[in-house]
Amino acid sequence: MGADGGKRAPAGASGDITGGPAPAVRRLWLRQLLALIVKEFEEIVRDPSSYLVAGVLPLSFLLLFGYGITLDAGILKVAVLDESGGSRSLSLAADFAHSPWFETFHVGDMETAGRQMRDSAVQGVLVFRGDFDQELAAGRTGALQVIVDGTEPNTAQYIRNYSQGLISDWQRTALPGGKAHPAPMGLETRYWYNPTAKSERFLVPGAITVIMTLIGTLLTSLVFAREWERGTMEAMIATPVTRLQLLLGKLIPYFCMGMFSMALCAAAAVTLFEVPFRGSLGALLLLSTVFMLSALGQGLLISVCLRGQLVAAEAGLFSGFLPALMLSGFVFDINSMPEALQVLTRLLPARYFNTCLRTIFLTGDVWSIFWPSLLFMGLLAAILLGLVYKNLTKKLDTRT
Prior knowledge:
Structural class: mainly alpha
Low-confidence stretches: 1-20, 178-187
Oligomer: single chain
Strand order of the largest sheet: 2-1-3-4
Order of helices and strands: HHEHEHEHEHHHHHHHHHH
C-alpha cells in the first residue's frame, strides 16, 4: 500500500506526459515477445520434424517435381511399315531414323505394328503404301499415313507436328522440283524468355509455389493445436502476455523458417535445374515475404480454430496444397479451365505467386504484374492474420 492508502502501481507502469506507454513498459513488452520467440525457436530446434519440413521436404519435392514432371516429348518411338520398298520411301524413313525426335523400328506387317502400339512399345506408326514410289515418280501424291496413339494426346500432337516438319523438309530436298517452287512464305519460330523450350524452366518456379504453400500452411497449422494437445496452452493463457505477443511469438519463427526454405528452393532452382534468374533479389524477397505471410496466416487460422493436430494437418493439406497444385497454373493452364474454376483461382494467392515467380525467373522485374499480385496477397494476409488475432482468445473455453 502506498502512503496515500491506494495500491502501489508497478514500477514503470505509469505513462509519460503524452499519455503513451512508458519506455520501461515497451521494453518489458519486447522482452516478453523475445522470450516467446526464443521459446518457439528452442521447440523448433528440439523437434526433428522441423528440419524435415523446412529443409528435407522442400528439396525432396523440388527434385520430384523438377525431374519427375516434364512436358517435353523426349524420344518418340515410331514403328515403320514400308510396303513400297522403293528408294524414296527408304530415304524418308532414314530421315525419321536420323532425326533427334524419333527412334524407329521396322515392322513387316500392320498386325505387328498394331500389337506394338497396343503394348505401348511404340507411340506411332509410319505407313508407306505399296504404290508410294510409283505415285511420286508419276508426279502424283504418294500415299503416306501417320498413325498415333490417341490415349496420350500430348504425345500424339508431338508426333504429328514433328512428322509434318520432317516430311515438308524431305519434299523440298528429295523430290524433283522441290526447290524450284518454294513456299510463298517462311515461318520461323522463336521462344522468348525460354529459348531452349525446356519445360522445367517454367515448371520449377511453379513447383516452388506449391512447396511454399505446403510449408507455410503445414508449419503453422499445427502450432496452437500442438500446444492444446500437450497441455501447455493453459500455461501460456495464465501468463500476462497479450494476444498480439502470442501471435507474433508464433508467427516470426515460422516466417524465418519459411523464408529459409524459399532461399533453399531458389538456390536449387538456379544451380540444380539451371533455371535463369533475370529479376532482382529485392523483388523476390518482397514477393516471398508477402506470400509467406498469407500462407502462414492461413495455417495459423486453421490452428486456432482446430485443436487437434491430425485434423489441423489434414485441413492444411486440403486447403493449401491441393488448390496450389491443381488451380495455381503450375501444371494446368488456367485459361483452359471452366469459367467457375477460373473465378475460383482469383481467390488463391498461389496463382498470383506462381505468375510472379515465373516472371521474375524467366523475364525479370515486371512491376505491372507484381503490384496487383502484391496488393491482393497483402490484403489477404491482413485479413487472415486479423481473423487469427480475433479468434486467439485467452480462454480455456472458446465458446464463452
